[in-house]
Amino acid sequence: MNPNGRRIRKFARRTSLVTGGAVVLLIVLVVMMFKPETSPNASGGSLILFCAAGIRLPIEQIRRNFERECGIRVDVQYGGSNTLLSQLQVSRTADLYLAADNAYLAIAREKGLVRETIPIANMVPVIAVPKGNPKAISGINDLMRDGLRVALGNPGQAAIGKHTRKALRDSGQWDALERHVTESGVFKPTVPDVANSVKIGSVDAGIVWDATVAQYDELDSIPAPELNAGASQITIGITTWSESAAAALKFARYLAGRNRGLISFKEMGYEPVGGDPWTMRPKLTFFAGSVNRRALEPAIKRFEVREGVRVNTVYNGCGILTAQMRAIGEGDDPGFPDAYLACDVYYLDTVSELFGAGTRISETDIVLVVAEGNPKKIRGLEDLTREGVRVAIGQPDQCAIGVLSRRLLEDANLYQRVRKGNVVTETASSAMLVPAVTTGSADVTLAYRTDTLAETARTDILDIDSKLARAIQPFAISLGTEHKQLANRLFATILAARSDFEAAGFRWRLNPDGADNKKRAYGYRRDD
Fold first, then answer.
1. Which pLDDT score is estimated for 334?
2. H helices, E strands: number in the chain
3. What is the residue-wise DSSP string for 1-30?
4. CATH for 41-121+233-272, among 3.40.190.10, 3.30.160.270, 1.10.260.40, 3.20.20.140?
5. Of 53, 350, 414, 523, which has fewest CB within 10 angstroms of its CB?
6. pTM score, two decimals?
């Protein structure tokens, strides 16, 4: 072979490689020059949202803002609320489900399709007519005039149809209107389909949401008193199977944020509900009596992981916690707790003006705790007054167990005698009482049964025959918290933690629907 030919071909290959590399490099540089500042896929992945078609306009605006701000893409599938619910059940693909009515979210929860739900905005059905109302329609009965063409949402597909049917059944007008629409009108699968039919003139009127009309310059709204009963609340839910729950909840918080998504809803004619302020990673401050710690910690950890938030949990004796609350002074102070789980209702009552109504979630007994074998042969409260018996009790100004022990002994006319002659230590927290016995610094203590579980091998437990020998733990949300929705979801997580509480030795007080087994409102007396 000609040596010069080989050199020429080798040079050509090298030149081709260099040229090809330069072209590739040029393409990369061009792509980089035109690459957007934030790539949704690059930093946060993507979400799938099933969304009622009538809410498309605000959702598109909010979605774009969220993607730009948070770097998470949101792919949206629009349709009728009921149609999407059926698809959700079959496909189990979406991370979020936004319906035009919370009734669909209630069904989704019953079926185990969604876990958390957040309200967004309210809507009311109205009659939509072309601008100027050329047919002079003034109410529901006018829709049934001969020759008038009417469009309604299909009750089996769209929330607007379902609400229209219910409201007009209640008023006795549905059957006649349904016949009229079947004969000379049309049923549509979504509320935009109804509105667009009125807009282009294929029908003379339709029933849509008030917020829908506000988005069309070509339409006027005619209120009808009968339709007020069909008011609806837009609600978003996070699916139980979502593998991106923290990102999904971030979008839901953004959507429901009063300084983010709710602004768009209001600008487009919706009536927003009161939402939390949007922050990228919100923080809750949660005060909890020490007795609750073992039961609470697993639930709080699950909540933080799923929500992608931080919970600053402060455990202490409830007397200390409530004194701290009163020192702070205002429920909307940054240091004030967003929520409070007291050791007993007594210590929620002392700050009740700063919290909403409490819910009693669990209870535990107050028992006598002695060293294994009961060397002092203690049988009941009267024995706490015997000479030489060393007693440990809670400090009544610092912890609930101290208050309840004092009440218990006062009820037996023993408190002053025990405190004067036998009390050797008063602790600031219930967690310090059982160790007083196991270390030998006291012969007996009054403690929560839940605090004895870790020391069953070194102690004996004596029940106390008194209706006052128990503590009931109420949960309440601060009236001044900026994060009511987030605090309510923390409460829902705690309500789902029955097994954690029972494993920690508590008795559960709530029925599966969240109602107290006693069927009473908060504010009961000690003898309940």
1. 67
2. 19, 21
3. --HHHHHHHHHHHHHHHHHHHHHHHHHHHH
4. 3.40.190.10
5. 523
6. 0.82
